[in-house]
């Protein structure tokens, strides 16, 4: 190794889900929304004045921030925006996790957490989920587990399991001296948000995204809601890193999509309805799973290995997610698509699993 490499910051990067581009595929591997974004997004595209691109965008993204604040009925000073929730979370790690004590997050969770911790030199510990893949709140209490901060998704990923609001509050009550970040990327699909707790706990930060429930994964819009002091600290770090993190088109399109609450509610309802139907189909085919409150289901089959099913589906251009790691290597995370897409999945699984059971 060359001497200059001694000073290179070396990390093992996060590996995102595969992004195939086949026309005939069914893509159920990265938890994208199967429905297009609000028609308001197209209107923004059609009316957009390209001449404005020679100008820098608004560094505060005020139009977008105000639209988000209106939806959640909070002050714009309580809203922080970034380039996807990954950007928001990374900024939050840099801003709030600077103790010598380890931050805590589940052992089975969003696999970017340990990447950021390694990259920013933040000590961390993974806290084991129980046998049902549930977070045990007491394991996060400061008197039981000294820490420099806490972060977890709710619902968790890749399990889809929800942590009840009273359990989140218990974690906050027992950790008044550190930041607690609740990553709510999937909360709109049936879980209860921690946002009401903001009135009681100034160390709570709630992070959400437009990539799932608002069908804007390609635009990269994430946001955090917290008390004004937390958001001010976040913005100080953001503006010290890059003042112009969001482009003009993203700001305008994001604001328009947030204002169309009727379409948001309609498409979320479709996904939830399809998910509940899909749970019955998975059960019929011999799968078991936790009670997902996300737009995916984390399933294991009673007799056929997950990796085998994953490979068989891939050969049919049906893409799902397989995590070849301890505790998760028996499971597949399957995004909820349209009813038609899910029916194709189940038709294949019924035939394949039937053949497999016959030898």
Q: SSE order in H/E notation?
A: EHHEHEHEEHEEEHHHEEHEEEH
Give the overall shape.
globular
Strand content: 5-15%
Mean pLDDT: 95
CA distance, first residue to last residue = 52 Å
Summarize this entry quickly.
The chain starts with 25 loop residues before the first strand and ends with a helix. 42% of the residues are buried. The chain contains 10 helices and 13 strands.
Q: What would the keywords be for this entry?
A:
359 residues, 13 strands, 36% helix, single chain, globular, 14% strand, alpha/beta
Can you walk through the features of this model?
- Helix 1 (39-47) packs antiparallel against helix 7 and helix 3 (84-96) crosses helix 6 (228-241).
- The longest helix is centred in the last third of the chain and has 24 residues, at 261-284.
- The radius of gyration is 21 Å and the shape is globular.
- Strands 2-8-7-6-5 form a five-stranded mixed beta sheet, with helices on both faces. It has a four-stranded antiparallel beta sheet with strand order 9-10-13-12, with helices on one face. Strands 1-11 form a two-stranded parallel ribbon.
- The chain is 36% helix and 14% strand.
- The chain has 359 residues and is an alpha/beta fold.
- It has helices at 39-47, 62-72, 84-96, 113-119, 165-173, 228-241, 248-259, 261-284, 306-315, 339-357; strands at residues 26-27, 79-82, 103-106, 124-127, 150-153, 180-183, 204-209, 222-225, 287-289, 296-301, 318-319, 321-322, 332-335.
- The protein is built from ten helices and 13 strands.
């Amino acid at each position: 190794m060359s001497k200059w490499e001694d000073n290179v910051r070396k990390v093992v990067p996060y590996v995102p889900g595969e992004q195939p581009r086949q026309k005939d595929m069914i893509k159920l591997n990265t938890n994208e929304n199967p429905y297009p974004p609000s028609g308001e997004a197209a209107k923004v595209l059609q009316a957009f004045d390209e001449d404005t691109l020679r100008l820098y965008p608004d560094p505060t993204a005020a139009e977008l921030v105000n639209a988000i604040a209106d939806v959640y009925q909070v002050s714009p000073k309580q809203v922080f925006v970034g380039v996807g929730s990954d950007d928001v979370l990374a900024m939050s790690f840099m801003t709030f996790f600077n103790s010598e004590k380890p931050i805590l997050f589940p052992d089975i969770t969003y696999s970017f957490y340990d990447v950021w911790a390694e990259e920013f030199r933040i000590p961390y510990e993974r806290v084991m989920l129980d046998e049902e893949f549930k977070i045990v709140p007491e394991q996060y209490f400061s008197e039981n587990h000294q820490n420099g901060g806490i972060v977890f998704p709710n619902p968790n990923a890749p399990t889809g399991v929800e942590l009840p609001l009273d359990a989140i509050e218990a974690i906050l009550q027992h950790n008044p001296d550190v930041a607690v970040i609740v990553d709510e990327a999937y909360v709109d699909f049936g879980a209860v948000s921690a946002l009401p707790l903001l009135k009681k706990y100034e160390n709570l930060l709630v992070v959400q995204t437009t990539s799932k429930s608002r069908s804007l994964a390609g635009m990269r819009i994430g946001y955090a809601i917290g008390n004004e002091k937390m958001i001010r600290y976040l913005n100080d770090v953001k503006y010290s890193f890059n003042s112009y993190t969001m482009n003009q088109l993203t700001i305008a399109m994001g604001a328009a999509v947030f204002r169309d609450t009727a379409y948001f509610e309609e498409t979320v309802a479709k996904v939830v309805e399809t998910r509940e139907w899909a749970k019955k189909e998975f059960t019929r085919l011999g799968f078991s799973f936790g009670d997902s409150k996300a737009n995916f289901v984390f399933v294991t089959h009673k007799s056929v290995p997950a990796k085998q099913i994953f490979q068989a589906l891939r050969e049919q251009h049906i893409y799902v997610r397989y995590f070849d790691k301890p505790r998760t290597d028996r499971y597949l995370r399957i995004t909820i698509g349209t009813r038609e897409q899910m029916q194709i999945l189940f038709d294949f699984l019924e035939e394949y699993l039937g053949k497999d059971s016959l030898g």
